Amino acid sequence: MMRAPRPTCWLVALACLACTAAWAATEEFVVSVQGTAAGAMRVGSEGGRVTVDYSYRNNGRGPDLNESFRVDASQRPLEYRVRGTSTFGGEVREDFATDGTRWHWESVADRGEEAMPLGGVFVPLESTPAYWGQILRAVLAGVGGRAPSIQGARLAAERLGRLEVDGRDGRLAVVLYVVTGGDTWPWYLWLREDDARFFAVGWPGWAVTPAGYEGAIDVLMNFQQNAQAARLENLQQRTAQPLPGLTLVRGVRWFDAPAAVARGPSDVYLFDGRIAAVTPPGSLQAMPQQVIDGAGAMLLPGLFDMHSHMWPEAGVMNLAAGVTTVRDMANQNADLLQLKSRIDGGQIPGPHVVPAGFIEGKSAFSQRSGFVVDSVDAGLQAVDWYFARGYRQIKLYNSIRPEWVKPLAGRAHAHGMSVAGHVPAFMRAEAAVNDGYDELTHINQVMLNFFVRPDQDTRTLLRFELVAQMARGVAADGPAEQRFIELLRSKGTAVDPTLATFEAQFTQRDGEPNPSLVAVADHLPLLTRRGLARSEASPSAAQIGIWRESYASMERFVAALHRAGITLVAGTDTDLPGLMLVRELELYVRAGIPAPEVLRIATWNGARIAGVADRTGSIERGKAADLVLVAGDPLRDIADLRRTTLVIKGGVAYAPDALFDALGVRAFAHAAAIERLPAP
User: Fold this and answer.
1) Quick check: 268 and 278 in contact, CB under 8 A?
2) How far apart, in whole angstroms, are the C-alpha atoms of residue 185 and residue 576?
3) What is the rounded CA–CA span in Å between residue 168 and residue 148?
4) Sign of the alpha-carbon dihedral angle for 159, 164, 165, 170
5) Rounded to the nearest 10 degrees, how much is the dihedral formed by the CA atoms of 442, 447, 451, 455?
6) pLDDT per residue over 656-673, tens digit each?
7) What integer is the mean pLDDT of 331-349?
8) Spatial distance between the Cα atoms of 307 and 301, rounded to a whole number of angstroms
9) For residues 493 and 534, what is the distance between their CA atoms, to the nearest angstrom?
10) Residue 10: what pLDDT?
């Protein structure tokens, strides 16, 4: 399952300033996905009220929202209402009103009332791009481009640059802004310079623009990505701590990932970005330039997130959480390679990126990333394209025709590449493995093997709904299940479960705390925290018991795979990477996998399956100094992984608290000190 990079209710909602008298009665916007029209937004205004219809589809899913709002003379919302469904089919329902002194709101997840601060701007849980634009306009009207919101949040807007674009109505001057302070991630959007109306919002592969200006998307996104990179370059300069010469991590216990055991205390020496030596404490007189005290801490190889969809700020969150390598499982190819180049060059903070080459079949349900092909020959050409650019793996997706799997996998294997992915529609996992899959992604794709019918189209939300209803009947020790597990074992097939991706979707009702993030909720920005009470799929009272049983069955099956010797790798596929990886690992422990073996999954297994075990993934002489210093002992309590005090990527150290602070996240531990010693 793939999500586009961070289209939260904030980023999808800032697209059309709908409340000035200069506006036409109706405006039409196009939602574009990888250059193809995938939906629309219609904005109408009459008598001071704005109404919005917004809908699009990508990957067989998308939101359907009907919205209306009214603002005062200073463009601040007085009333707001939205009804509809979210990307995953959950109910969207929220109302807001104010008398100018107090504001009141009620949603499917919560309700509240509080004094309205001067210049306050209401931000809902999920809204349309039209209302996002109104939020920005209200923030710009505030003193210094700032405005308070509910529960003490404060929004700020900053102008990043100007551009001229051509389209149906002629050349327009547009301005790029970034909004911070509300969400974990900054929101980027474009306004017309002449009247401050919204012009566009987007990220690589997705955009909302006025009808007739779709041709400007590439120019807008290139400008935006450069501005985004400039902001992160500044963060890199402020937070990166080079470790020149010799660095000693003194007296530290460390995790031997291949053996899944703790060793030490030892002195670990780092030189020129690599692990130079692991010795008994005090046994060398090596005169280091830097010393890091490891007493009471544990040193681990950098963590792997093996199911990521990278965007620039995600790199910051990953590093803060101790993730030094990610495998990107689908993205816009050119944009990902550019991002990878900036990270590798030390321009912006981020983990090492191991890209998988995404190939999807062309259909009405296509996920429009990478290559979307309409023939097996086009698919073979895509495999060659990825191989020539150094990719180690291809990922096949839902709309690949079953008969294409064997030739595509054969071409990849001939190049020495591995094959992973979703099980194509009208095919079962067993057939995919027999036709060449080396790895199955997502535990729901595995569970479908036992009950999906040949006529059921899993390119739709059925791939979640069917599992929610039926997975409770899967018994890991049943004969069909055991035959399937034996097939995986005989073929050496790995599994990327992404259990945490489904935890809230299958077990949370609106108004309940998000079980995956409840442990970190108090550390998140206020408005992000509020959204955690909203269910992604809105199961009914009659459904929730069944869905929770199915989720428990999924956990048990992951543990059974591990006991059978199937290689597991840990991935998130989430809008909150890094933080969610720890939850993924907690779920493995809860399922019955011992914590030391879970840590091996998150380090050594990731390195092996990603094809980089010769360089990283273990603490050994000559390996890259990709390391995480953790307060406490995650071998006894896996949750201690949140208490990361220092992250080292090659020859550069990062203080997690500084990186978290840049994202509005309250850190989980104080940074470890790096003692700089005078030259002898």
Assistant:
1) yes
2) 10
3) 37
4) positive
5) 10
6) 999 999 999 999 999 999
7) 95
8) 18
9) 36
10) 32
CA angle 148, 153, 154 (to 5 degrees): 45
Reduced 3-state DSSP string for 69-87: EEECCCCCEEEEEEEEECC
Q: Residue 264 has which token pair?
A: 């030490």
CB burial string 473-492: b at 16+ within 10 A, e below: ebebeeeebeebbeebeeee
Question: Is 70 exceeded by the pLDDT of residue 86?
Answer: yes
Distance CA 575, CA 307 (A): 12
Residue type, 217: I
Q: What is the pLDDT of residue 89?
A: 87
Taking the C-alpha atoms of residue 629 and residue 673, their distance in angstroms, rounded to an integer, is 11
Tokens, residue 170? 């002629």
3-state class of 677 per DSSP? Answer: coil
- Asked whether the predicted pLDDT for residue 259 surpasses 70, the reply is yes
Residue of 317, 270, 274, 321 whose CA lies nearest to 294: 270
Residue 204 identity (one-letter amino acid): P
Taking the C-alpha atoms of residue 587 and residue 516, their distance in angstroms, rounded to an integer, is 9
Angle at 135 between CA 131 and CA 138, to 5 degrees: 135
Encoded tokens for 378: 């086009």
Strands 49-56 and 36-46: antiparallel
What digits encode the pLDDT tens for the residues 149-190?
988 889 999 999 999 999 999 999 999 999 998 889 999 999
DSSP letter at 573 equals: -
Is the bond leading into 265 cis (omega within 30 degrees of zero)? yes
Nearest CA to 131 out of 62, 207, 66 is that of 66
Amino acid at 589: V
Residues 128-146: tens digit of each pLDDT: 999 998 999 999 999 999 9
Q: Quote the tokens at residue 78.
A: 């007085």
Let me know: does 116 contact 102? Beta carbons within 8 Å: yes
CA distance 21 to 475: 63
Q: Which residues contact 517 (CB under 8 A, 6 or more apart)?
A: 504, 524, 532, 576, 579, 580, 583
Contacts 24+ apart (CB under 8 A), 48-57: 48/19, 50/18, 50/19, 50/130, 50/134, 52/16, 52/18, 52/128, 52/130, 52/131, 54/128, 54/129, 54/130, 56/31, 57/364, 57/365
395 contacts 445 by C-beta, under 8 angstroms:
no
Question: What secondary structure letter does DSSP report for 603?
Answer: I
CA of residue 637 relative to chain centroid, distance: 25
- Residue 542: how many CB atoms within 10 A of its CB? 7
Q: If we measure between CA atoms, which residue out of 329, 542, 545, 540 comes closest to residue 442?
A: 329
Read off φ and ψ for residue 107, nearest 5 degrees.
-130, 180
Give the span between the Cα atoms of 65 and 54, in whole angstroms: 5
Say if residues 73 and 89 touch (Cβ distance below 8 Å). no
Residue 231 phi/psi, 5-degree rounding, is -65, -40
Report if pTM > 0.90: yes
DSSP assignment of 363-396, as one string? STT---SSEEESSHHHHHHHHHHHHHTT--EEEE
pLDDT value for 351: 98
